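Lecture 7 notes: from sequence to structure.

We start with a single chain of 335 residues. Read the sequence below before looking at the structure.
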Amino acid sequence: MARSSRYEGDQQGAPMSQPIESAGLVVDQSSGIAIVDVQCPMCGTKSAQSLLTDLADIEDRVPGRYSIGRCPGCGLVYLSRRPTADSLSRCYPPKYHVHDPVRRRLIPSLLYGFRLKSRCDRLLRSVGERCGALLEVGCGDGSFLELLSRRMPAACTLSGIDLMATVRTDSRVTIVRGEFEKVEWASKYDAIVMYGVLEHLADPLSALQRMSRLLEPGGLLVGDVPNWDSLWRKLFPRHWAGLQVPRHQTLFSPRSLRDMLNAAGYDTVGIRYVYDPGDLSVSLCNWIADKLRLRTPPRQVWFYFPAAMLCAPVVGLVNLLSGDSGNMEFVARRR
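Now the structure, written as tokens:
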């Protein structure tokens, strides 16, 4: 079932549709970021019930003030006042935490490696051994694809794409640098994975529909998103790690995640709550850094990893007793 992982840049096609930018355009002169009110990215309802306003970027200090609203039509929670689609790339600093070299240090690399191994074990249980081609959207530095290359069947081709990826092509793994929405893939896949990606997309519904067209009939989509219904979001309403304003465009609950997958042409196989100690530790560091007005970003303060170690058993106990977690992993099958 191995397939070509060739790709071609879409030079003539237009980008995927974005939520209509409706009103209130403001341009920050220092950064060039344009901020605007938008309609619901799932059902198109034009106005949102206000939940949080005057939100600033606590983690990476991107300029601007943003708002979160709930759609009165479908119930989706989303960043209702947000950067325009053209400005969104300016909201990711060069040392955005996914690409931060600090991950390569001993303790962070061990923790990150454990997380990837657990993710890989769950994926293999879902996908099985008959997968001939897999695409990772938002592959970062390619660490997960590298792990999969050692665990997946030898016949399985592995591809990935990321805005900041290092291009790679070998007999097993192909990595493309660019935007998923603007690449024309010449392959069909048995599985597409996207971890920590869907919440970043300005138009998640269109992205899911495009992924469905890339999947073989019955192919699987596997990924994770922050859980809006989590205990830690309720305890840290303006400092919750899952907010990550203004980079997180949509904030999913289990119900809204199922609704969007269904609207995009998938049957939800399952949603599970994944143990994630970072949900509490990042939220706590966000709160401390904000209250003390620290100049160092919360994920780079000296107490970040000690906080993660101390929070780990607390999060584990809450997850064990209540099943609650700030992170949801989903498996969906293309109809």
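Residues 202 and 249 are 6 Å apart (CA to CA). Keep this in mind for problem set 3.
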